[in-house]
């Protein structure tokens, strides 16, 4: 999936304040097209296959309608909450997104500064273009690390140890992309990752020699899936860290239960933003099914298709403790750098507060399915 290439990034307009025409997340997405090279935009924006899941992720939020409530006293309202014994100012996290220098030279460092400014938790990708240590230094207090299994346990252990030493307070292991195809748009435009966006954390990692396949063997089964992590690897990972461990990419309730049995502390209900299997249900549709089987109060996050504070509200009403946003952070980063990402987070936070106030909820724990008009 990752290769060498070159990418424009030099002729970027300077931006020291945000244009008044940017008032919602969709504005950043619209403007980002002028800031991101065409092939990279296809890579970021696209999904797998026919992009049905990609479309469904957003459509599912649009299909949910809410009730408002009158005369509620929300004057003491707050979006603050606790997770794994830590306080968070609000439930909107930055999802792990690889290779952020594709859209801005400061990449993840700029996102991290925005996270710090807006008291948002940043989940740093294993495949970040800056090192996890540099990002940790910029991100301040609230940061988690997204972990991909490496080709050997020694390499996995080393990556984990670095994340712990850098001060990340939770590990999110992503398990939903043992095989992944580029979006068709990215394939057609010949996308490959430029040198400046290659994973900084893995620079010195010596790759195991690729499995030599015979012509009658499958690149999927005997190739990627032979190397992919198994349940025994998750069990091993659980034994390697005292930090809260979350699994990202769970869609099936039975997998959720098996993770919990193994001592996993939280789950991210996610279809990788429609970038894994095309045809899997929207994250928002999956969420209540997972919530129905996990123990009461078990931490569940969701990502995929969240584009407004009202979407955040709906996700919480249907069972999420917190949400993560993926592509929107890249669009804001492309347009406005750190300032843009911080501004995007402020927009989402403000919109969430408006939704809470008009639905009569002073705290996140008051948000429930009773606010949902449309049943999905
Ligand atoms: C360009 C791009 C890179 C991504 N890189 C990673 C990654 O390194 N690790 C990971 O767990 N998820 C990765 N994701 C998936 C996101 O964490 C998240 O699941 C998804 O973007 C959420 O959907 P949304 O974009 O609709 O908000 C990536 C997504 C995009 C668009």
List the helices and strands and how they pair.
Blueprint: H1 25-32, H2 38-45, H3 52-63, E1 81-83, E2 86-88, E3 92-94, H4 107-117, E4 122-124, H5 132-139, E5 143-147, H6 153-165, E6 171-174, H7 184-188, H8 219-227, H9 231-240, E7 245-250, H10 253-261, E8 266-269, H11 283-293, E9 300-303, H12 309-317, E10 322-325, H13 327-358
Parallel strand pairs: 3-10, 4-5, 5-6, 6-7, 7-8, 8-9, 9-10
Antiparallel strand pairs: 1-2
Flavin mononucleotide is lined by residues 44, 57, 95-98, 125, 127, 146, 174, 248, 270, 272-273, 275, 303-306, 325-327.
Q: How would you characterize this protein structure?
A:
The structure is a single chain. The chain is globular. An eight-stranded parallel β-sheet has the order 3-10-9-8-7-6-5-4. The chain contains 13 helices and ten strands. It has one domain: Aldolase class I (TIM Barrel, Alpha-Beta Barrel). The protein is of the alpha/beta class and 376 residues long. The structure holds flavin mononucleotide.
Question: What are the key terms here?
Answer:
eight-stranded parallel β-sheet; alpha/beta; 10% strand; 10 strands; TIM Barrel; binds flavin mononucleotide; disordered N terminus; two-stranded antiparallel sheet; 13 helices; 376 residues
- Quick one: CATH superfamily? Aldolase class I
Helix percent band: 25-40%
Please summarize the sheet with the most strands.
Answer: 8 strands, parallel
What bound compounds does this protein have?
flavin mononucleotide
Q: Which regions have little confidence, pLDDT < 50, spanning 5+ residues?
A: 1-11
What count of helical segments does DSSP give? Answer: 13
Instruction: Give the helices and strands as they follow along the chain.
Output: HHHEEEHEHEHEHHHEHEHEHEH
Beta-strand proportion: 5-15%
